[in-house]
Amino acid sequence: MENLFENQDIIDINIEDSVKSSYLDYSMSVIIGRALPDAKDGLKPVHRRILFAMHDLNMSARAPYKKSARIVGDVIGKYHPHGDTSVYDALVRMAQSFSMREPLIDGQGNFGSVDGDSAAAMRYTESRFTKISEDILKDIDKDTVNFTANYDDTLKEPSVLPTRVPTLLMNGSEGIAVGMATKIPPHNLNELLDATMHILDNPEATADELMEFIQGPDFPTGGTIFGRRGIIDAYNTGRGRVRIRAKHHIETRGKKEIIVLDELPYQVNKARLIELIANLTKDKQIEGISEVRDESDRDGIRVVIELKKDAMSEIVMNNLYKSTPMETTFGIILLAVYNKEPKVFTLPELLNVFISHRKTVIIRRTIFDLEKAKARAHILEGLKIALDNIDEVVKIIRASANDSDAKEKLELRFGLSPIQSQAILDMRLGRLTGLQRDKLEAEYQELMAIIAELESILKSEEKLVEIIKEELSEIREKYSSKRLTDIEDSYDEIDIEDLIPNEPMVVTITHNGYVKRVPIKSYEKQRRGGKGKVAVTTHDDDFIERFFVTNTHDTLMFVTNMGQLYWLKVYRIPEGSRTAKGKAVVNLINLRPDEKIMEIIPTSDFDESKSLAFFTRNGVVKRTSLSEFSNIRSNGVRAIVLDDADEIVTAKITTPSTQYLMIFTSLGQCIRFDVEKTREQGRSTRGVRGIKFKHDTDFVVDANVVDNIEQELLTVSQKGIGKRTTVEEYRETNRAGSGVISMKLSAKTGNVVGAVLVDEAQDLMILTSIGKMIRVDMQTIRKAGRNTSGVIIVNVDAKDKVVSIAKCPKEDDDELDIENADTMDGINLDEFNLKDKPEEENNDTNNKEDNILGED
Fold this sequence. Notes:
4-stranded mixed β-sheet; Topoisomerase II, domain 5; 5-stranded antiparallel β-sheet; Gyrase A, domain 2; Topoisomerase, domain 3; 25% strand
């Protein structure tokens, strides 16, 4: 024994390291090679090998059935060196309509049932492809995917299939690896294709946005998903839990009620369920059931549960949900292998992986077709040369000693390639006829058109996307199916909104982005010209930019200068005192760096008859249906495409009664035009020109939507000067014009700050840059003509200026009429730096109107 290792190197290895290394190798083998699906084609290795083996056997959906044993033999002999039982079980599952949302194998014979019956032996059953499997393997012979060596390095097998359908989400997958597990539910193919089409147009689409198309899992056995929270969690994080209930209806027979189960939760064994119900009834753990029987047939499931005369079906159903698999929990884990690494995906990530895979497949297919077309064109070019010089070609061939000699002489004489010279030697004499010559030329021209088209696909991302869309549309037409699983809201998921009283609030936001809400009763009314109350304590470099009155249950839409739109419920804004600073908006919504909120719009619904009008600093206007913003998501959406050096100034909701849009500029211009001059556009569009400026330094400061010309507009300047003017005085013009004068400006007035639609049934609230707020009765502000300056509404100090105006419900006896309080739109403001010092004004303005500049 001592001489046994004399001539061999002995390496000391730590047994702990050896075990660790071996176990890691085993773990990765199980993870990558057996238990987990690939994110690209959605298949585990065994399923992929079964389909590829059937492809080798030419088992299309139109081919004759072949014995399942033949397929299993090919799979284990060529690609999958494991037990035949595991391979056959995988094949059987792919043929079961109650296991797969879209079966991949068309089985003939006994392939099991929902009662848990096992399939017949593989020697008895027969199989072939379903039509959808053909699309999963389509173009595999065109070098669209990578091939790897099989287990004994004698054959090649695909590492992934070039599927045209999102198989992973369509049929789902379950598997337990080492230290991890996957459990992906099946989905409706129509919904998946619609979501994929959407994400092709909107690559940054979020899970919440995709849920407009994908309602949730769609199980092949139907049933009802109870509650949406688990779906939302799963699509946003990759993990969630959904409850599935059996679908039933109630029948009556005399005075007795009968519960009939029409559909069962996914993967529930019907026979065991009936047995369990019978045992629970026998043991009196569930009261009120007199009989349970199975009346299912080939048309579907029908489990009859007869109740006693005094039994209530709702109570019995609740007990059945609690004690039996009539309600089950499906724990979703969107785990799959991507680039040989396991990863938990979100819904958008999985669809993007599928799209990326399709792009790769189409590019490789295009390159394959292009090379094939070029090779054929190359031969045709040689044949054309031969036909054009046929006499000399024949002479050279006849004078040659053999084929090799003829090839060399042809190549030397006409500059041909070896392939072309060989094609000329192989050419039949029949190709010399005039008709054959015409066919040759037509084939060549057709090939050149194909080559040009294929090359254009490789150069254009847009064409690539268009091809994917066309293929997805084709798949949708071929395999369209209705949703089987219903989704109902759960009463257990009570929204916190139901526990919060719906009452009016004043919401304020400062220049530096601090927001708060204060009960509206905290503010008292003063006379015009008063000094007001401090609405918030701010720092020297901060001031209140805007405020509005809304209700706690309303939704706030935050429109930013960059054209993004975010959502926030009013009750989620912290409530504070009048002098409280508030909370930073960045802690409530996910703003981007350098992004600033320009408008906050409260709304109680997202009716599609309404639209959201956006106005930019450079005078662009755009309308988008409000329903396009109904799907609330934390990351916001793109609301408008902005030009360089442009930004959002304000946004307003238009209703079916809206007639006009009005835009106001800093230098006193205003334009009024029909709302229909701006047609509704999608979110990702630019809009159209709304107003043309007379001066390069001018810009838009505010805008309004008008229902009728009898409404009044209150225009206010920086120095606290304002006036009420009817809309009728601003004559209607065409969109993109210069408009008319909205206010006569001077050093005493400063530039225009904003304009709001008001009436005498409302009060005016004004904020200044140092944080003062004053409430003014609208009746105390005099009406004036369009080309005037107006009267002093509020006195401002030399270092102060008006920064925001808004309207609010009128008070009665210093108390607000809460019941009739209307919500109001936010006011967008711009900060002005005035160099002119305002003249001293008389502070005693309670009993007189100061018309500082007369009318023209």
